[in-house]
Amino acid sequence: MDLLFILIGAGLAIFVIFVSFKSIGAGIAAKSEINRQKDKLKSGDKEEGIEDITNENIEKTNEQVKIVNQIDDLILIVDKFKNIKFFNNSAKKKFGENNLNKHVATLLRVPDLLQNIDLVLLKKETITMDLELSTPSFQFFKVHLFSGPTSYVDDPDSVVLFLKDLTDIIKAQRFKSDFVANVSHELKTPLVSIKGFLETISGHAKDDLEAQKKFIPIMLEQADRMESLIKDLLSLSRIELEEHVQPQDKVNLKEILSNVEDIHQKNLKSFEFKNNIKDDFFIKGDHEKLIEVFSNIIDNSIKYSEKNKKIEVNCKQGNGKVIGDSYTVSIKDNGIGIPTEQLPRITERFFRVDAAKSKKVGGTGLGMAIVKHIVNQHRGELEIKSEAQNGTEIKVHFSKF
Ligand SMILES: Nc1ncnc2c1ncn2[C@@H]1O[C@H](COP(=O)(O)OP(=O)(O)O)[C@@H](O)[C@H]1O
Ligand SMILES: [Mg+2]
């Protein structure tokens, strides 16, 4: 449905741009006609009104180019040799400044696109096509090609390429379906296992007390797993809904970290835990959500470190990672670390370096995604430093209250 609206919007935009280009062309044509007349009149017998008409047309043309340059979509005009004769600011931003007169294939080496340019040149029809690029990163455009404003370029044959960037929408659509597939898979696994055990103990192991004693704790563990997953999913969707509203309460980072220490006290006893926050550090935030942030981070340090290793918490004045004066909380462990190439993916939903290990220690793969969203909601910054076998340091930067 969203896509339909966007396409209708794109259609309207193309119509406006098409009319605009025709009038830019007309404006330029009028300008040269007036210049010709002015040349004729050079001898002195000045015709009344010419000067005004010239200025008016130049202003009109400049105004129209200005409009085309304000548009978010990319606009290129190529001549019959497919050399670029015009590109608007958005196209400049995407492809770089110095592309005038270059062949369009130097920017978009896509055989279908080149073929369609030929078709438009030949038949003067409007063609619409999808354009998916994978380098340097995934990009998706709806491209409309139509016959160009002949008076705009020297050559009478030209083609306007109107590229509507749908990358974010297509990414969001794919992300949504991947997410649904992942959630279904994550929930199905424990459910299938619970169902299997129930069938066994209500079927052939009906009177087998030993089997029941063995299977019931496993079923409970699987049910717990489903419960944590649903809890994390609800938490994530609630935070996503509220992400645009920055929390405004005055909260003390010292108190938050001390509460988090209490929550994990039992597990932290097996580690060399040091909370070095002795001063008050006030930031604008939401107490409960910040507890969720640091609880998830410390939970990871516990889960992914061997017993007796050091886990250290510090807070100090920030280093300009966020706007204005700031504080930075650091949680540093000496655990199994994260391979450098995996670091950019740590905050992705359901991403785990080692899925089996994460499941074994009761992870859902959603903790760091929750952390990232809460930090974003607080307009803070998350920084993750880690190396395989060399511990992890997570820093969270916040603006001072
Ligand atoms: N402190 C850490 N040390 C080592 N690996 C970590 C640490 N924190 C996160 N990770 C890695 O990042 C993955 C994602 O973390 P998270 O979103 O909290 O999910 P999980 O439920 O698996 O803990 C974990 O599975 C783990 O592989
Ligand atoms: Mg976790």
* Total count of domains: 3
* Bound ligands, each once: adenosine-5'-diphosphate, magnesium ion
Beta-strand percentage range: 15-25%
Structural class: alpha+beta
Q: In the CATH hierarchy, what is the class of the largest domain?
A: Alpha Beta
CATH topology of the largest domain: Beta-Lactamase
Shape: extended
Low-pLDDT residue intervals, each spanning 5 or more residues: 25-53
Major sheet summary line: 5 strands, antiparallel
Q: What does the radius of gyration come to? A: 31 Å
Distance between the termini: 42 Å
Short description:
The protein has helices spanning 2-40, 50-70, 89-95, 111-123, 167-202, 209-242, 253-263, 265-268, 287-303, 355-360, 367-377; strands spanning 74-79, 84-87, 127-133, 139-147, 158-165, 249-252, 272-275, 282-285, 310-317, 326-333, 381-386, 392-399.
